[in-house]
Amino acid sequence: MRQIRAGIIGGAGYTGGEMIRLLINHPGVDIKFIHSKSNAGKAVYEVHEDLLGDTELKFDEQWHGDVDVVFLCVGHGEAKKFLDESGAALDGVLIIDLSQDYRLHTNGTRLQVNGHPFIYGLPELNREEIRSAHGIANPGCFATAIQLGLLPLAKAGLLGDVYSTGITGSTGAGQALSSTGHFSWRANNIQAYKSLTHQHMKEVGQSLQQLQPSGAAVHFTPWRGDFTRGIFISSQLKIEKSAEEVLALYEDFYQGHPFTIVSRKPIALKQVVNTNKCLIQLEQVGSQLVVHSAIDNLLKGAAGQAVQNMNLLFGFEETTGLHLKANAF
């Protein structure tokens, strides 16, 4: 198998840690550097302690250009800054950005890296474009779960007003301490936040419009949950097709997409935690349809999807390095 030389910028956080865990076990990847200014010189396992015995890699202060692909696991705004400062040194290097810096179009035009447009990295929507991309804008976690729940309806032109709620674990807020991130606050607690204003809704609207140019509006209320990993979304809308017709739309749309599975039984968050899967379940009463979708926010919502995109970019089987087991117990 071909060996891809990979670098990681921002390897100390939750997403960076997941990138390391996936790539050190990927049969086609050789990690050349893991960049972290605050942890330069430290062994990776000193920060990500579960990797003790798995790797002897150390964090670097400088990034190295002798790579085929760079994963940007940095905060919003930092990815664009890194690419602006690196300039021509990144010629020929493929970029997979996990921040939100390159997801949105500007006046209908995709943002670019070294003269090439960034492709929105949702394989279930843009698989063929991803294969030939130079830059991938990895989707947001909430955006991934919401879109995968709605794409088949958008393709059929069936979306109108959609009312979505979604709950996320504490890792969705990142590693930095905050008043709503402490265990004492999260435990036995739940809270709505950014109601109808969450930043991921812009990319959701952009993607849905790609399939259904008009008539769709998603109204989203996110919740902070009392657990560490995972996202569970419920989206409700009115529909005039039968339950059997709607189920057929979903099963046809996701046929051939290995990580998005339509379940005929109730789904639960534990089925997807520690996997790159998105599970979808439909419930319909009369003309009211509820679409449930569940993902791991750090994997299908971040690092796992980034590896899935890398596999497409370099011609690997899409599932390579992503055969992961759910934390069922």
Overall helicity: 25-40%
Termini gap: 34 Å
- Could you tell me the radius of gyration in angstroms? 19 Å
Instruction: Identify the CATH homologous superfamily of the largest domain.
Output: Dihydrodipicolinate Reductase, domain 2
* Strand percentage: 15-25%
Q: For the report, how would you describe the main beta sheet?
A: 8 strands, mixed
Q: Extract low-pLDDT stretches.
A: none
Overall pLDDT confidence: 94
Oligomer: single chain
CATH architectural label of the largest domain: 2-Layer Sandwich
Number of strands: 15
Q: Assign the structural class, choosing from mainly alpha, mainly beta, alpha/beta, alpha+beta, or little secondary structure.
A: alpha/beta
Order of helices and strands: EHEHEEHEEEHEHEHEHEEHEEEH
> Which CATH class of the largest domain?
Alpha Beta
Number of helices: 9
Shape, per Cα inertia axes: globular
Strand ordering within the main sheet: 3-2-1-4-5-8-7-6
- What's the number of structural domains? 2
